[in-house]
Amino acid sequence: MSSKDSKLSHFFSIITLAMLCAFAPMCSDLYLPSLPSIMLNYDTNPSLIQLSLTVSFLGLALGQLIIGPLSDTYGRIRPLMVSLFIFIICSFLCAIDTCIEFFVLLRFLQGLAASGGIVLSRSIACDLFSGHKLTSFMAFLMAINSLAPILAPIIGSFIITVAPWQMIFYILSLWGLLLIILSRFSLHETLEIDKRAKNVKYSLLLLKTEIYNRSFMLCSLSLSAIMGGFFSYLAASPFIFQSIYGLTAFEYSLTFAFISVCISATGMLAGRLCRKFSEFKILRIALIVMLVTAFMIMFEALWLPKSFVVVMLTLALFCALMALSQSSGFGIVMGLRRGGAGAASGLFGVLSFLLGSLISPFVGILGEKSMLPLGIIMITCVIMAIVLLKSALKGVNTDKL
Fold this sequence. Notes:
Blueprint: H1 3-21, H2 23-28, H3 35-42, H4 46-74, H5 77-96, H6 100-128, H7 131-145, H8 147-162, H9 167-186, H10 200-211, H11 214-244, H12 249-273, H13 279-302, H14 308-335, H15 341-359, H16 372-392
């Protein structure tokens, strides 16, 4: 293979990994602008519609716990292909369903299948890199796949202005098909046979080892608490900007895109910062500033600003700090693992999405025109993250993190 072909292959490999890592925003952000339309279509309430987002997060969580250990036994590529195929089927069925209860179930199964892309992209990265290089690469992936939350709501809002909301799920089916093609031709197996778990039972035993790994679990829970605050923002944002401030679906998508640009920029910044400072120092500072930001959101919830721009900028800061904490924190978490990257990555992922799926429904508990639950949730999540991180790193040499 020529040098030019090798560079081209490497480019497509990175793009494919970024697209796989972006499964979460594609499953949620693309259809966020259509939530009010879906609510009217099924003649239901905001909490039940937000449940379709919640169960998707739950599927994204549980799927990682299953697919991660499987990939430590059977390699990365075969589980990836199976999960992508199931994702295509579930997305298509979401488009033709006429029952809200079945739609919610399909969203769970869709998230379950999509989790393969998330956990396996991280596992492949762990197969190839470690330490600061892993942090830099994950930050680079985050910067690239931030295009998904930037473009997805804009595309979603455009779709629902020219076509029924069901078209969004047809497009997700095509997204899954595209990833099958890209994965088939641009990715190679990164987990050699001699490095795989002997069988699934042995892989699950490695997973059990991580569960009893105190530092790993507490650090994972710390980052998961931050994701709980972020998922709450995802669930609340359509109603904050459209119901409270009266933005159209397209205007909301532009607001969402701006916040996503901030996430992308911070992801790129994290890759540079980790070359000068330790991941632990970056994470600690991010959490402190994030706590201040969460209190600002609470203040805005109590004294609602007249302009949505104030709320948008505060939420953008919170989400940008989330990106910084996740980029630096992932390297710390994986440095604390004792077993396979697939099992550890799956356990880390399940905690993040599980907490998010449990917390996010509460943002609508006071109705579609209240930001107060979001402020309370964000403050609680950041405080939990700080306490858990401090406990996780007790006795650990942070100079090596």
